[in-house]
UniProtKB/TrEMBL annotation:
PANTHER family: LD18447P, PEPTIDE CHAIN RELEASE FACTOR HOMOLOG-RELATED. This is Peptide chain release factor H. Residues 186-208 are annotated as: Disordered. One of its GO terms (molecular function) is translation release factor activity. Residues 192-208 have a biased composition (Basic and acidic residues).
Length: 208
């Protein structure tokens, strides 16, 4: 089983980026103890430190392990970068990411064709035979109707082409929506009720 999570400082300062790095190291250590592998997928660097790290976890009970981290993480420490800075509470967020939508494999076998007569202006029939085509992609429910040509075969070919275009467009929209949600997660931090709290430069967990 696998899970993808992202550790993010949102729009926080350098101290939060430092906390992102420390959270990732701590997560790696705990995962190793549980027989869970952690693979870094990407990281966004800022001022020499990661403002976000995305990683994939594989192993037994990985979902339960991730739930121990998902939420806001509080690091309590005087700033190691600004000695006179009064703030001591720094927050980062750990998000579970949805899987990227899989592109539907288009197959003509999944398309149901229905034929009909093409209607012209004024109610006249363009054709006396059923040359217009309605094509339904059964896995997605998408449908197109084509009456461009007098040839039923050509209309079927056009219908297949337009179905493929609609499916591809829908896949791209789903990916964009997923990216939008992930971006919103990255910039929003819940500063109430932290899931876990760490203290000091050694990043020792409070209460343990």
């Amino acid at each position: 089983m696998k899970k993808t999570i992202e550790i993010s400082a949102g729009r926080g300062p350098k101290e939060c980026n430092y906390a992102v790095e420390q959270v990732f190291k701590r997560l790696q250590a705990e995962a190793s103890e549980r027989g869970i592998s952690v693979q870094m997928l990407s990281q966004l660097m800022q001022d020499g430190l990661p403002s976000s790290i995305r990683c994939e976890l594989h192993g037994p009970d990985v979902a339960a392990f991730c739930q121990q981290w998902v939420g806001s993480i509080l690091w309590i420490c005087a700033s190691p970068f600004r000695p006179n800075h009064a703030r001591k509470n720094w927050f980062v967020a750990v998000h579970a990411l949805e899987s990227s939508p899989e592109r539907l494999k288009f197959s003509e076998k999944d398309v149901e064709f229905q034929t009909m007569r093409s209607g012209g202006a004024g109610g006249q029939h363009v054709n006396k035979v059923s040359s217009a085509v309605r094509a339904i992609h059964k896995p997605s429910g998408l449908m197109v109707q084509v009456m461009d040509s007098r040839s039923q075969l050509q209309n079927k070919q056009l219908a297949l082409q337009r179905l493929q275009e609609k499916i591809a467009a829908g896949f791209d929209e789903d990916k964009l929506e997923l990216k939008r949600k992930q971006w919103e997660q990255q910039v929003q931090l819940d500063r109430g009720n932290p899931k876990r709290t760490f203290e000091g430069l050694r990043f020792k967990e409070k209460g343990r």
